[in-house]
Design goal:
By secondary structure, the protein is an alpha+beta fold. The strands form three sheets. Strands 1, 2, 3, 4, 5, 6, 7, 8, 9, 10, 11, 12 and 13 form a 13-stranded mixed β-sheet that branches. The protein has a three-stranded mixed β-sheet with strand order 15-18-17. The radius of gyration is 21 Å and the shape is globular.
């Protein structure tokens, strides 16, 4: 049971709780003051006392949602309310997460937990929400990681194989080596390159991936399908809709995020919402009725309200924008 609770708390810290998981965590937190104290300690770090910032954030969270702790035991209202607010509190978790993330430093198990450092087989690089990170792999390949990304490298990398695990968005510049292809495993898809530069957006939880080839040649394997990309081509993989789309694009649009711009050229609104969530560090939800509508436009340092208003006015349908405790919900606006 404790392992499952640890997993739920870790998902909460990473802003990756599903609705079902949020309900499970809420139920556990309801059970006792001890559980809520343990939750706060986990947010502040297992081995360290809560930081002043964590204490302040927790106090704000508890004060803001004190109704959740005041309803008598056995009343279902509290459970329903708490589930609503656990989801809404994701933005608070995102603000705290930066304190505990690796901040781009390879993750190595603590020698004090019984694991020998010499037994480590992988290095892991992570970026927090709102953070970018440049790294150079042992073979000389360069990776510029966008926020909330994870890259895992085997310590044998470059000796016989060049394979990595990746979740997130990054611009890759791969060092050429014809005898040893570079392979990326990401969200059940595989990407094979020799000496290539490309942008890969592949967050497993979003079930929507985009790879844009800048130079060289890239092979993507999606289940049983193998697709070859040439420069100036983009591949969109929608696992929810079970579709694969290849098309010619302006490659510079794919890396606008490096300079702080978001450029959309025929991307579904669900992808627009996900990118805005990372860019503005808030949670933005899109109604499934309009999630796959195609949008073209650009966000260039506008405030979030300005960006949402602009997208509403230029999207295929007029949008209704609802802000509930800092969490945004986009849907089709009703006709007057």
């Amino acid at each position: 049971m404790q392992k499952e609770i640890d997993r739920l708390i870790n998902s909460y810290r990473n802003n990756a709780l599903s609705r079902e998981e949020a309900g499970m965590l809420a139920g556990w937190l309801e059970e006792s003051d001890e559980h809520r104290a343990q939750f706060r300690e986990c947010l502040a770090g297992r081995e360290q006392p809560a930081s002043a910032k964590a204490e302040r954030e927790w106090a704000r969270f508890a004060a803001r949602n004190k109704i959740l702790f005041s309803v008598p035991e056995g009343v279902n209202t509290r459970r329903r309310l708490f589930r609503r607010y656990v989801a809404a509190a994701a933005v608070l978790a995102a603000g705290i997460c930066a304190v505990w993330f690796w901040q781009g430093v390879p993750a190595v198990p603590d020698a004090g937990n019984g694991t020998e450092i010499g037994a480590v087989q992988q290095l892991e690089y992570r970026t927090a929400r709102g953070e970018k990170l440049d790294i150079v792999l042992p073979d000389g390949s360069k990776v510029c990681m966008n926020s909330e990304a994870t890259l895992t490298v085997d310590l044998k990398f470059g000796k016989a194989t060049r394979e990595i695990e990746f979740d997130g968005e990054a611009f890759f510049t791969i060092a050429p080596d014809k005898s040893c292809p570079f392979i990326i495993h990401s969200a059940n898809n595989n990407y094979t390159v020799l000496g290539t530069s490309f942008n890969l957006q592949s967050y497993a939880r979003e079930k929507f991936a985009v790879v844009t080839l800048h130079t060289g040649c890239l092979q993507a394997q999606v289940k049983k399908d193998v697709i070859i990309l040439d420069p100036n081509e983009e591949l969109q993989i929608d696992a929810t809709a079970n579709t694969i789309t290849k098309r010619a694009v302006r490659i510079d649009d794919s890396i606008g995020w490096i300079e702080g711009r978001l450029i959309f050229s025929g991307h579904p609104l669900k992808d627009v919402a996900n990118k805005l969530s990372r860019y503005y560090q808030v949670r933005i939800n899109i109604h499934e009725e309009i999630a796959n509508l195609q949008y073209t436009g650009m966000v260039d340092r506008e405030t979030l309200p300005e960006a949402l208003r602009m997208i509403s006015e230029t999207s295929p349908v007029r949008l209704s924008i609802t802000n509930i405790d800092g969490e945004y919900f986009l849907s089709r606006a009703k006709r007057k």
